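Marked as duplicate of an earlier ticket. Keeping the data here for the record.
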Amino acid sequence: MVAPAVFRALRKNKTFRYGVPMLLLVVGGSFGLREFSQIRYDAVKIKKIKDATFEDWKNIRGPRPWEDPELLQGRNPETLKPKAA
C-alpha cells in the first residue's frame, strides 16, 4: 500500500515531473550528437583527398547565366573578351 502513495507523491513533485524529462533530454541529446558528429568525421576519412593527384588539374570557368555554355567549354576566357580598338 506504500507504493501507490509514493507514486502519487512523485507525480505531484515538480522536480520529478519536469526535471527528470529535461535531464533525460540533455543526456540523450549528448549521446545523439556524439553519434552524428562521428558520422561526419568518418565521412571525411573516406574521401582521402590527400591521396588525389592534382598535376593534370585544369581550372575551367563555368558559364554565367547570360553566356552560352557550349561557347565557353574548354576555351580560354581571355580569347573571348572583345578587343579594344
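See parent ticket for discussion. Residues 66 and 72 are 12 Å apart (CA to CA).
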